Amino acid sequence: MASRRDDDDAAHHEHGSELSETQVRVRALESVLVEKGYVDPAALDRLIETYETRVGPHIGAQVVARAWAEREFAAQLFEETPAALASLGIAGGQGENMVALENTPAVHNMVVCTLCSCYPWALLGLPPVWYKSAPYRARAVADPRGVLRDFGVELGAEVQIRVWDSTSEIRYLVVPMRPEHTDGWSEAELAALVTRDSMIGTGLAKQPAESATR
Ligand code: FE
Questions:
Q1: d(CA 131, CA 133)
Q2: Measured at the alpha carbon of residue 122, what is the angle toward residues 34 and 32, in degrees to the nearest 5?
Protein backbone atom coordinates (compact mmCIF):
# COMPACT_ATOMS: atom_id res chain seq x y z
CA MET A 1 0.00 0.00 0.00
CA ALA A 2 1.42 3.32 -0.95
CA SER A 3 -0.11 5.64 1.56
CA ARG A 4 2.07 8.33 3.00
CA ARG A 5 -0.43 9.59 5.53
CA ASP A 6 1.78 8.90 8.51
CA ASP A 7 5.00 9.46 6.71
CA ASP A 8 6.59 12.82 7.24
CA ASP A 9 9.65 12.20 5.12
CA ALA A 10 8.14 13.63 1.98
CA ALA A 11 7.04 16.87 3.57
CA HIS A 12 9.80 17.83 5.89
CA HIS A 13 12.20 19.32 3.36
CA GLU A 14 9.69 22.01 2.54
CA HIS A 15 10.13 23.48 6.01
CA GLY A 16 13.85 23.90 5.55
CA SER A 17 14.44 21.75 8.63
CA GLU A 18 16.20 18.44 9.04
CA LEU A 19 13.38 17.34 11.30
CA SER A 20 9.81 16.63 10.33
CA GLU A 21 7.01 18.39 12.15
CA THR A 22 6.27 15.24 14.13
CA GLN A 23 9.92 14.84 15.11
CA VAL A 24 10.04 18.46 16.29
CA ARG A 25 6.91 17.90 18.37
CA VAL A 26 8.27 14.69 19.85
CA ARG A 27 11.55 16.37 20.79
CA ALA A 28 9.74 19.29 22.38
CA LEU A 29 7.54 16.93 24.37
CA GLU A 30 10.53 14.84 25.40
CA SER A 31 12.45 17.91 26.62
CA VAL A 32 9.53 19.04 28.73
CA LEU A 33 9.03 15.59 30.27
CA VAL A 34 12.72 15.20 31.02
CA GLU A 35 12.95 18.73 32.42
CA LYS A 36 10.05 18.09 34.78
CA GLY A 37 11.53 14.77 35.82
CA TYR A 38 8.69 12.63 34.45
CA VAL A 39 10.94 10.51 32.28
CA ASP A 40 14.51 9.37 32.56
CA PRO A 41 16.27 9.97 29.22
CA ALA A 42 18.41 6.85 29.71
CA ALA A 43 15.30 4.72 30.22
CA LEU A 44 13.78 6.26 27.12
CA ASP A 45 16.91 5.42 25.13
CA ARG A 46 16.81 1.84 26.37
CA LEU A 47 13.17 1.52 25.37
CA ILE A 48 13.83 2.87 21.90
CA GLU A 49 16.89 0.68 21.52
CA THR A 50 14.84 -2.35 22.51
CA TYR A 51 12.26 -1.76 19.82
CA GLU A 52 14.77 -0.75 17.17
CA THR A 53 17.23 -3.58 17.59
CA ARG A 54 16.27 -6.34 20.02
CA VAL A 55 12.59 -6.73 19.23
CA GLY A 56 11.68 -7.27 15.62
CA PRO A 57 10.16 -9.64 13.09
CA HIS A 58 13.02 -12.09 13.65
CA ILE A 59 11.32 -13.04 16.94
CA GLY A 60 8.04 -13.85 15.21
CA ALA A 61 9.94 -15.70 12.48
CA GLN A 62 11.50 -17.98 15.10
CA VAL A 63 8.06 -18.77 16.46
CA VAL A 64 6.72 -19.60 13.00
CA ALA A 65 9.77 -21.74 12.18
CA ARG A 66 9.33 -23.69 15.41
CA ALA A 67 5.66 -24.23 14.59
CA TRP A 68 6.60 -25.50 11.13
CA ALA A 69 9.24 -27.80 12.56
CA GLU A 70 7.45 -29.18 15.61
CA ARG A 71 3.91 -30.42 15.39
CA GLU A 72 3.41 -30.37 19.16
CA PHE A 73 4.57 -26.79 19.46
CA ALA A 74 2.26 -25.81 16.61
CA ALA A 75 -0.69 -27.45 18.32
CA GLN A 76 0.02 -25.56 21.52
CA LEU A 77 0.63 -22.32 19.64
CA PHE A 78 -2.86 -22.43 18.12
CA GLU A 79 -4.53 -23.70 21.30
CA GLU A 80 -2.92 -21.50 23.93
CA THR A 81 -0.69 -18.96 22.26
CA PRO A 82 0.65 -17.16 25.36
CA ALA A 83 1.81 -20.43 26.95
CA ALA A 84 3.52 -21.55 23.75
CA LEU A 85 5.27 -18.17 23.47
CA ALA A 86 6.26 -18.31 27.13
CA SER A 87 7.93 -21.67 26.49
CA LEU A 88 10.24 -19.79 24.10
CA GLY A 89 10.80 -17.04 26.65
CA ILE A 90 8.55 -14.56 24.87
CA ALA A 91 6.08 -12.52 26.87
CA GLY A 92 3.39 -10.33 25.35
CA GLY A 93 4.65 -6.75 25.34
CA GLN A 94 2.03 -4.94 27.39
CA GLY A 95 0.41 -8.01 28.85
CA GLU A 96 -2.11 -8.25 26.05
CA ASN A 97 -3.42 -11.58 24.89
CA MET A 98 -1.72 -13.07 21.86
CA VAL A 99 -3.52 -15.30 19.38
CA ALA A 100 -1.79 -17.23 16.60
CA LEU A 101 -3.75 -17.79 13.40
CA GLU A 102 -3.01 -20.68 11.08
CA ASN A 103 -3.01 -20.18 7.33
CA THR A 104 -4.10 -23.24 5.38
CA PRO A 105 -4.83 -23.99 1.73
CA ALA A 106 -8.44 -23.09 2.51
CA VAL A 107 -8.04 -20.07 4.82
CA HIS A 108 -5.81 -17.02 4.65
CA ASN A 109 -5.70 -14.79 7.73
CA MET A 110 -4.93 -11.09 7.64
CA VAL A 111 -4.56 -8.65 10.51
CA VAL A 112 -5.50 -5.00 10.79
CA CYS A 113 -6.26 -2.54 13.54
CA THR A 114 -9.22 -0.57 12.24
CA LEU A 115 -9.19 1.78 15.22
CA CYS A 116 -5.52 2.74 15.38
CA SER A 117 -2.40 0.62 15.06
CA CYS A 118 -2.47 -2.21 17.61
CA TYR A 119 0.25 -4.62 16.63
CA PRO A 120 2.10 -7.59 18.22
CA TRP A 121 5.17 -5.53 19.15
CA ALA A 122 6.77 -8.29 21.18
CA LEU A 123 6.85 -10.52 18.10
CA LEU A 124 7.16 -8.14 15.18
CA GLY A 125 8.74 -4.97 16.58
CA LEU A 126 7.45 -1.64 15.33
CA PRO A 127 4.59 -1.61 12.84
CA PRO A 128 5.27 -0.55 9.25
CA VAL A 129 3.95 2.86 8.19
CA TRP A 130 1.31 1.38 5.90
CA TYR A 131 -0.16 -0.65 8.78
CA LYS A 132 -1.10 2.61 10.49
CA SER A 133 -2.41 4.26 7.34
CA ALA A 134 -6.10 5.05 6.97
CA PRO A 135 -6.40 3.38 3.54
CA TYR A 136 -5.02 0.07 4.85
CA ARG A 137 -7.22 0.16 7.93
CA ALA A 138 -10.34 0.82 5.85
CA ARG A 139 -9.61 -1.38 2.84
CA ALA A 140 -8.31 -4.40 4.74
CA VAL A 141 -11.88 -4.89 5.93
CA ALA A 142 -13.82 -3.72 2.87
CA ASP A 143 -11.64 -5.29 0.19
CA PRO A 144 -9.03 -7.66 1.64
CA ARG A 145 -8.51 -9.41 -1.69
CA GLY A 146 -7.77 -6.07 -3.35
CA VAL A 147 -5.31 -5.15 -0.58
CA LEU A 148 -3.53 -8.48 -1.01
CA ARG A 149 -3.31 -7.84 -4.74
CA ASP A 150 -1.66 -4.47 -3.98
CA PHE A 151 0.90 -6.41 -1.95
CA GLY A 152 1.46 -8.73 -4.88
CA VAL A 153 -0.45 -11.65 -3.39
CA GLU A 154 -3.02 -13.32 -5.61
CA LEU A 155 -5.08 -15.96 -3.84
CA GLY A 156 -7.35 -18.41 -5.59
CA ALA A 157 -11.10 -17.78 -5.36
CA GLU A 158 -11.41 -20.97 -3.27
CA VAL A 159 -9.29 -19.44 -0.48
CA GLN A 160 -11.35 -17.78 2.20
CA ILE A 161 -9.83 -14.60 3.60
CA ARG A 162 -10.41 -13.90 7.29
CA VAL A 163 -9.63 -10.42 8.56
CA TRP A 164 -8.88 -9.99 12.24
CA ASP A 165 -9.20 -6.64 13.95
CA SER A 166 -6.57 -6.26 16.67
CA THR A 167 -7.33 -4.28 19.77
CA SER A 168 -5.48 -3.19 22.85
CA GLU A 169 -6.47 -6.55 24.40
CA ILE A 170 -5.78 -8.98 21.57
CA ARG A 171 -2.87 -9.06 19.14
CA TYR A 172 -2.63 -11.59 16.33
CA LEU A 173 0.23 -13.44 14.74
CA VAL A 174 -0.39 -15.03 11.37
CA VAL A 175 1.47 -18.29 10.85
CA PRO A 176 1.94 -18.49 7.09
CA MET A 177 1.91 -21.81 5.25
CA ARG A 178 5.23 -23.61 5.17
CA PRO A 179 6.65 -23.47 1.64
CA GLU A 180 7.00 -26.78 -0.19
CA HIS A 181 10.37 -28.42 -0.73
CA THR A 182 11.67 -27.41 2.69
CA ASP A 183 11.79 -30.89 4.24
CA GLY A 184 14.77 -31.33 6.51
CA TRP A 185 15.47 -27.61 6.78
CA SER A 186 16.75 -26.35 10.12
CA GLU A 187 14.66 -23.90 12.13
CA ALA A 188 17.13 -21.13 11.31
CA GLU A 189 16.81 -21.85 7.60
CA LEU A 190 13.03 -21.96 7.88
CA ALA A 191 12.95 -18.70 9.86
CA ALA A 192 14.75 -16.96 6.98
CA LEU A 193 11.69 -17.67 4.81
CA VAL A 194 9.31 -15.92 7.19
CA THR A 195 8.77 -12.28 6.30
CA ARG A 196 7.18 -9.63 8.48
CA ASP A 197 4.33 -9.20 6.00
CA SER A 198 3.65 -12.93 5.97
CA MET A 199 3.04 -12.69 9.74
CA ILE A 200 0.60 -9.79 9.26
CA GLY A 201 -1.06 -11.70 6.45
CA THR A 202 -0.30 -9.21 3.69
CA GLY A 203 2.34 -11.53 2.30
CA LEU A 204 3.30 -15.18 1.99
CA ALA A 205 6.41 -16.92 3.20
CA LYS A 206 9.32 -16.82 0.76
CA GLN A 207 9.89 -19.74 -1.57
CA PRO A 208 13.08 -21.80 -1.10
CA ALA A 209 14.51 -20.29 -4.30
CA GLU A 210 14.20 -16.80 -2.78
CA SER A 211 16.15 -17.75 0.32
CA ALA A 212 19.75 -16.69 0.76
CA THR A 213 20.47 -19.25 3.47
CA ARG A 214 20.43 -22.27 1.17
FE1 FE B 1 -4.90 -0.05 17.55
A1: 6
A2: 10
Distance 167 CA to ligand 1 centre (A): 5
Q: Which CATH number fits domain 56-210: 3.40.630.30, 3.40.50.720, 3.10.180.10, 3.90.330.10?
A: 3.90.330.10
For residue 211, how far is its CA from the centre of ligand 1 (angstroms)?
A: 32
Q: What is the pLDDT of residues 109-160, one digit of tens each?
A: 999 999 988 999 889 988 999 999 999 999 999 999 999 999 999 999 999 9
Question: Which of 7-21, 117-131, 168-182 has the least mean pLDDT?
Answer: 7-21
| CATH 3.90.330.10 domain locations along the chain | 56-210
CA distance linking residue 82 with residue 97, whole number of Å = 7
The pTM of this model reads 0.79
Catalytic machinery residues: 113, 116-118
Expressed in angstroms and rounded, the spacing between residue 185 Cα and the centre of ligand 1 is: 36
